[in-house]
Amino acid sequence: MRVLAVASEAFPLIKTGGLADVVGALPGALAGEGIAVTTLVPGYPKVMAAIGDAPIALDLPDRFGPARLRAGRAGGLDLLVLEAPQFFDRPGNPYTGPAGEDWEDNGLRFAALGFAAAEAAVALGFQAVHAHDWQAGLAGAYLRLTAPRRVPLAFTIHNLAFQGQFAPGLFPRLGLPPTAWRVDGLEYFGHVGFLKAGLWYADRITTVSPTYAEEIRTPEGGMGLDGLLRGRAEVVSGILNGIDETVWDPATDPALVVRFSAADPSPRAANKPALQSRFGLAPEPEAPLFAFVGRLAWQKGMDLVLEALPALLRAGGQLAILGTGDAALEARCLGAAAAHPGRVGAFIGFDEALARLCYAGADAVLVPSRFEPCGLAQLCALRYGAPPVVARTGGLADTVIDANAMALAAGCATGVQFPPSDAAMLGAALQRTAGLIRDRAAWACIRANALACDVSWHRSARQYAALFREIASANG
After folding, report:
1. In this structure, what DSSP letter does residue 179 have?
2. 136, 139, 229, 251 — which has fewest CB within 10 A?
3. How far is CA 156 from the centre of its chain?
4. How large is the average pLDDT for residues 213-220?
5. Calpha distance 248→354 (Å, rounded)
């Protein structure tokens, strides 16, 4: 079966977050299920350089200016690349300009991506389309309202907080029928809603974890779209993300000081002093070492970590912070490091190799998100034997088994959970975790369980494959 995936980024070609990791890893997992995925991405400079002089697969109608699709292979992916220099031949971040502001024409840029997806799906004979997040949201509108042949669509929400809303003046430029400008279409509180379009026109809607699929149908978690999602509840489901275990493998990872595996985890300990050294932390082998790797943002709960820092320090712990994001949080992290030398270290920015050393050298990894559709940090932490301390929300709740009394007795705990959005509860969880780390037998069992977790795509790929076959069969 042939499926066209549509997304604004894909690892290893272009990446700003977890979306790229999913889009890059899922095709390989689906190949084992008999699903051949071709991935449509914009022709950013890095992508165009990666495919070189790839042949033209399709010349597109001149709806948004000159554009065509090139077919190539790069980064282990079969690709269709939207060559539209007027939109994508720009340096840096895919979505923002040099000063960090959104490109003014983002609405047109990603409308062109959705239009190209619909044209390719029909002209090149794909049996289903898999669109990811708001940037691919208009694929469904073009497939349902302008395409000459019906191609079924699955739409995946990676984060409902990012919705792609644009001023109503964009609508006449999209080339869609006037009837699409209504509540049961693209109109969303007087704006053009890209994410809403994806949800409205999809045959099936998936999210990246089962718990998140439930949360987004509530007023608290639905971010204004809960009514639509409740109305379409029969087609909404959650399929848990995974990670590529060949990319994330502590037995082969060159970023580690010493490599290790689930079968022989003992060499892992040598990575802890290396991590302490990199972050300027005291070389104390018995100190519980926590790491935070990710965006410094309200959603990710970095402010909660800073509020709970006294509890961590009272427990004799150390903290390594690696990330970038909100300027005020960056300053607070640097301030905490300056105030607590040898106990707190902060690196503002992103360094892939250093992130991997964090996962391999920390005793535990913090993922205190206020909401988290799935999260990949906790999956990487499990894979590298750093039992995660997570908020009990979204995919974090689905992937980590709390080390409560019953789980410890049963020998099945893989980390620590706490109620989300509460610094006091996070502080209590940090102190509980520090106590577990000092109980060598208990922590060895938890770490062994973490290392044994199946965080691959295998189970989820089977679910996606079944979904694609189901919608293709229903399409006749």
Report:
1. G
2. 251
3. 11
4. 97
5. 13
238-281 pLDDT, tens per residue?
999 999 999 999 999 999 999 999 999 999 999 999 999 999 99
Residue 476 has pLDDT above 80, yes or no: no
Query: Dihedrals φ, ψ of 213, to 5°?
Result: -60, -30
CATH node for 266-452:
3.40.50.2000
Task: DSSP for 428-456, please give it.
Answer: HHHHHHHHHHHSHHHHHHHHHHHHH---S
> Topology of 2-242+458-474 in CATH?
Rossmann fold (3.40.50)
Phi, psi angles (nearest 5°) of residue 102: -60, 140
Sheet containing 344-348: give its strands across.
344-348, 318-325, 289-296, 364-367, 388-391, 416-418
Could you check whether 2-242+458-474 and 266-452 share the same CATH topology?
Answer: yes
When pLDDT is cut at 50, 70 and 90, the band that residue 338 belongs to is: very high
Domain ranges within the chain, ordered by starting residue: 2-242+458-474, 266-452
> How is residue 185 written in tokens?
């279409």
Q: pTM of this prediction?
A: 0.94
Is residue 115 a contact partner of residue 142, using CB atoms and an 8 Å limit? yes
Closest to 407 (Cα-Cα) out of 446, 377, 380, 381: 446
> Is 46 one of the annotated binding-site residues?
no
Q: Three-class SS of residue 308?
A: coil
Rg of the chain over Cα atoms, rounded to whole angstroms, equals: 23
Q: How far apart are CA 43 and CA 353, in angstroms?
A: 27
Q: What distance in Å separates the CA atoms of residue 392 and residue 336, rounded to the nearest whole number?
A: 26
Half-sphere exposure of residue 331, counting CA atoms within 13 Å on the CB side? 3
Among all chains, which residue has been given the structure tokens 């050298």? 361
How many angstroms separate the CA atoms of 303 and 308, rounded? 9
Q: Please write the tens of the pLDDT for every residue from 82-130.
A: 999 999 999 889 999 988 899 999 999 999 999 999 999 999 999 999 9
In DSSP terms, 70 is beta-bridged to 56, 81
